[in-house]
Write a structure and sequence with these properties.
heterodimer, A: alpha+beta, Alpha-Beta Plaits, 3 domains, globular, B: 83 residues, mainly alpha
Chain lengths: 402, 83
C-alpha cells in the first residue's frame, strides 16, 4: 500500500479552470509509486521553501554524453521511490507530428520503466520523460531505439533542433522547415550526442517571420523564412474584408511598423510600398485571405539569441539576409559557415558562454572577420537602424576630410 | 611518424587520469586543444581527436559527465548518487 501524503499546498494548484500539473501527478500516482513520492516531496519543498533535488552528474547511456539529465533527491530515506529521478530527453519528430501509435509506444515504454510522467514538450522541443532510475536507462534507450526514436541533446552539445510545422500544415511557410530540421539533426548527430562545445548550441527553424518556434529569441542559429518579392494581394478579398466590417485603415494600415501601406477607402484598395516592407507579417495575419507572402521565398539566417540563464536574454542578429535553402550550393555554404562559426567559438569561447555572448564580448566586427564574412548593411541591431559594423572606408573618408 | 587514433586516445586517457588526481575536470575541447598543440606536426587534427574521444567513451574507459558543463572523466561512483 503506497504511503498517502497530505498535500494541502499542492491542492491549491488544482483550483481554477486551467490545467494543473498537480492533477496529472495525482492521476499518475494511482499506479506509480514514483509519482506518489513526488507529490510528498513537492509538498515538503513548498512547506520548507527548499528544493530537494541534486542535478547533473555522471548518468547516461553508453557512448552518449547527452539526453539524460541526472537527478537525485537529497532526502532518499524519506522518499525512497524517487531516490533517483533522472530526466530523459527524446528527439521529437520534426514539427511534432506523431501517429497515435507512436505516442502509445512512447507512453508504454515510460509507464513500464519510469514514473509515467511526461512533459510534451520541453522548451527546447524534446519529448521529456520525467523520472527514472539509473538501472532503467539502458533498457529505455534500447526500447526507444527499437521504436525508431533517439535521445535528444543536453549539456554542452547541439541541442535537439526544432522547427515549426512548416509546409506540413502552414500555407505561409517560405521554406521546408521540416526537411531542414531533419537534415540538421542527421548532419550533426555526433555533435548532438557527444558534447564538445563551450556551452549549448541551438538551431531553430521557422517557416515565416511569425516565428512560431520563437527562434529569434532562443536559438543560437535562427533560420526564419522570408520572401524577396512583393506581398501577393487579392483585390477582391480586400473588398470582402471591408464588406465584412473590418476597419482596414485602423487595424491594418496604421499598425504597419514601416508605414508602407496606403488604403483607398473609396476604391477599397490597398497599396503597398514593398521596398519599405519589414516583413513583419502583421497585415498578412490580419487579412490572410487577401494578402500572402511573395513567391520568391527563402530564409534569413540570424545568430546569437538566448534566453536568460547565466547572463541576460539576447535577440538574434542577421547573419545571412537571404538564402535559398533549395539550392544545394547555398545549403553547403550555409553548413560550411556554421562549422566555421563553431570552430571559432570552440577555440575562443569561454566555458558556459553562448555564441551570442561570445559575439558581444569580442564585438560583431571582430567576429565577422574571424569567420570570414563581410559586413553588409542588412546586419543591423534594429530594423532600419544603424549598422553595428563600422566601415573602414567610411572612417578613411572622414579622416581624409579632416 | 603519424599518430593513430588509438594512440591519441591513450594519451588523452592519461591526461584525464592525471587531471582526476588533482581533482580537475577536462572538457573535450581541452583534450583536443592539448593534443593538437602537442602533435600537430604528427598529423593530429580535430577530426582525429573527435574519433579518439568517441573511442574512449564507446569502450567505456571514459564517460561524459555534466557539472554545469560537459566533461570527460574516468568512470567513478558519483558523490551525489543515492546507491
Amino acid at each position: 500500500m503506497p504511503k498517502e501524503y497530505k498535500t494541502p499546498m499542492l491542492d491549491e494548484l488544482e483550483k481554477g479552470p486551467w490545467p494543473s500539473f498537480v492533477k496529472e501527478i495525482k492521476l499518475a500516482a494511482k499506479n506509480s509509486p514514483m509519482s506518489n513520492d513526488l507529490l510528498g516531496l513537492l509538498e515538503r519543498s513548498y512547506n520548507e521553501r527548499i528544493g530537494h533535488w541534486k542535478h547533473g552528474g555522471i548518468v547516461g547511456v553508453m557512448g552518449y554524453g547527452g539526453g539524460v539529465i541526472g537527478r537525485y533527491v537529497d532526502v532518499p530515506e524519506d522518499f525512497p521511490n524517487i531516490s533517483h529521478f533522472h530526466t530523459i530527453r527524446i528527439n521529437q519528430p520534426s514539427g511534432w507530428f506523431y501517429t497515435s501509435d507512436a505516442l502509445r509506444t512512447l507512453c508504454n515504454i515510460w509507464e513500464k520503466r519510469g514514473s509515467g510522467l511526461t512533459n510534451m514538450h520541453g522548451s527546447t522541443g524534446d519529448i521529456v520523460f520525467l523520472g527514472t532510475k539509473t538501472d532503467e536507462l539502458e533498457p529505455i534507450f534500447s526500447e526507444l531505439t527499437e521504436a525508431g526514436f533517439d535521445l535528444g541533446g543536453s549539456g554542452s552539445d547541439v541541442r535537439t533542433p526544432s522547427c515549426c510545422v512548416g509546409p506540413g500544415r502552414c500555407e505561409w511557410a517560405c521554406y521546408d522547415t521540416l526537411k531542414l530540421c531533419y537534415d540538421i539533426t542527421m548532419r550533426y548527430q555526433d555533435e548532438l550526442h557527444r558534447p564538445a562545445f563551450p556551452y549549448k548550441w541551438k538551431f531553430k527553424m521557422s517557416g515565416c517571420p511569425n516565428d512560431c518556434v520563437a527562434s529569434i529569441a532562443r536559438a543560437d542559429i535562427s533560420i526564419i523564412g522570408t520572401w524577396k518579392d512583393d506581398i501577393r494581394v487579392d483585390a477582391e478579398e480586400i473588398k470582402n474584408y471591408d464588406k465584412a466590417g473590418m476597419d482596414i485603415f485602423n487595424d491594418v494600415v496604421l499598425n504597419c511598423p514601416a508605414k508602407c501601406m496606403k488604403y483607398d477607402a473609396k476604391a477599397k484598395a490597398i497599396e503597398i510600398n514593398n521596398d519599405d516592407c519589414r516583413h513583419c507579417m502583421h497585415c498578412i495575419n490580419a487579412m490572410p485571405k487577401a494578402l500572402r507572402p511573395g513567391t520568391d521565398t527563402g530564409a534569413v539566417v540570424l545568430i546569437g539569441s538566448k534566453a536568460p540563464i547565466v547572463e541576460g536574454a539576447l535577440l538574434s542578429s542577421v547573419l545571412i539576409p537571404f538564402i535559398n535553402l533549395d539550392d544545394e550550393d547555398e545549403r553547403e555554404d550555409f553548413f560550411d559557415l556554421i562549422e566555421e562559426i563553431q570552430d571559432v567559438w570552440c577555440e575562443e569561447g569561454k566555458a558556459r558562454e553562448r555564441v551570442g555572448e561570445f559575439i558581444q564580448r569580442v564585438g560583431m566586427g571582430n567576429f565577422l572577420e574571424a569567420i570570414g564574412v563581410e559586413p553588409i548593411p542588412e546586419m543591423v541591431a534594429y530594423p532600419r537602424d544603424n549598422p553595428y559594423v563600422f566601415y573602414e572606408d567610411y572612417y578613411d573618408d572622414e579622416e581624409e576630410d579632416e | 611518424m603519424a599518430l593513430t587514433v588509438e594512440q591519441i586516445a591513450d594519451e588523452m586517457y592519461k591526461q584525464v587520469e592525471e587531471a582526476a588526481q588533482v581533482k580537475k575536470k577536462l572538457k573535450p575541447g581541452d583534450l583536443t586543444k592539448t593534443m593538437i598543440k602537442l602533435h600537430e606536426d604528427e598529423g593530429v587534427d580535430k577530426k582525429m581527436c573527435k574519433a579518439a574521444i568517441r573511442e574512449l567513451v564507446n569502450n567505456g574507459r571514459c564517460v561524459y559527465t555534466y557539472f554545469g558543463g560537459s566533461f570527460i572523466e574516468i568512470p567513478h561512483k558519483e558523490g551525489a548518487s543515492n546507491d
